[in-house]
Write a structure and sequence with these properties.
- The protein is an all-alpha fold and 88 residues long.
- It contains 3 helices and no strands.
- α1 packs antiparallel against α2.
- The protein is rod-shaped, with a radius of gyration of 26 Å.
- The model has no long low-confidence stretch (mean pLDDT 74).
């Protein structure tokens, strides 16, 4: 429930900030397209922040897979070296 409240508040601040930027941008003569692009990027950042747990879990799984591959390669290299030493 708290996460949902925080998301709604963040989205409210993004919308209010975009409105403020649009208003001040129009008053200062700044291109409105740049303001809407900034608001779109802020909305994308908010959507990405909502998926932080999924991204973190994906990073952990990717790191675990990479670690397993490196450990497997190192074990193969060490055992192969040990086996060649016995043959000579």
């Amino acid at each position: 429930m708290i996460g949902r409240r925080r998301t709604v508040l963040c989205l409210l601040f993004v919308v209010a900030g975009a409105g403020l930027l649009a208003g001040t941008g129009a008053a200062a003569g700044i291109n409105v397209g740049a303001t809407t692009e900034a608001a779109s990027e802020a909305a994308d950042a908010t959507a990405l922040a909502e998926q932080s747990l999924t991204i973190a879990v994906g990073g952990v799984l990717l790191g675990a897979g990479l670690g397993a591959a490196i450990a497997s390669g190192a074990t193969y290299w060490y055992k192969n070296r040990e086996f060649e030493g016995r043959l000579q």
